Amino acid sequence: MSPVLDVNRVDLDHAINHKDHQTDFSEPECLFVRRGQIFTISLHLNSGQYNEGKDTLTITAEIGAQPSENDGTRAVFRVSDTIDEASWGAKASSRTAGVLTLSISSAPSAPIGHYTLFLDQEGQRQVKLGQFVLLYNPWCPRDSVYLDDEDKLEEYVLSQDGLIYVINLALPWIFGQFQQGILDICLKLLGIDPAGVQGCGATGNPVYVTRLLSGLIHKHVLWGNWNDTSDGVNPEEWQSSVEILQRWDMEKSLVRYGQCWVFAAVNCTVSRALGIPCRVIINFDSAHDTDGNLTIDKYVDKYGRPSKETRDSTWFVLQSWINR
Asked: What positions does the domain Transglutaminase-like occupy (predicted)?
């Protein structure tokens, strides 16, 4: 039996998809799309054509080392005449001479990360169509990270720099989540332990992933130090998550040193890169208030010099926007 389609090459339509998915920051060699939203691919054919209602084409999307439909790491769906953006699906959106364009939707709760697409034709050998990276989608109402506020989307997802407020000081910080190579580093970090003991399929849950990232950054990326930092970088000297992540990626070891706002800032970069809306805040509610007066006290004399020791302190944490 001859194949319905003899595929010569596949165009992942990077420019169109990246613009539609708010991922036009990415490298053109790799396709980055957001879950719960349609993207297109174009199949350039040596021969054959798709006849709707007559020919059976099946698409398979797989993620992880051992993909399975049971945990959501493999999705199998047919090309049909309709598409439901609430689940994985595909339809032929355009048919011209020698080219078949498919519109593909991913489930809004699908695991995130590196996927491989395959085409199956009845009785024929499976054809690899290409690879793409799936991210969380705060623009999609069906995604649990959905944020219905354009101003907050600009700040919590797209903004690559900002201020971290330390009491009455505003420290400039470069989050740089869309700088060249940073998203790849963030995915590499997640790949150290794709979803802890729960497996790769658990990356579909952003609540679990934010908790996982906190542990990964503390365990693998930054070394916390509140004492002598002479054999590394004083945490107060950092002004960018980019430098920290690049150093971790290059040296393959803990970066010395970090404190609470540095950990929170790096976590913010990784979360925004993956599509989780978030920001860095001062956490007064669980601050280190040693005398129980509900204030963080600093004592100085009339010349502004410290006059009394206090262990009161505030902590910096990551505030994520997730519809739980």
From this structure: 252-324
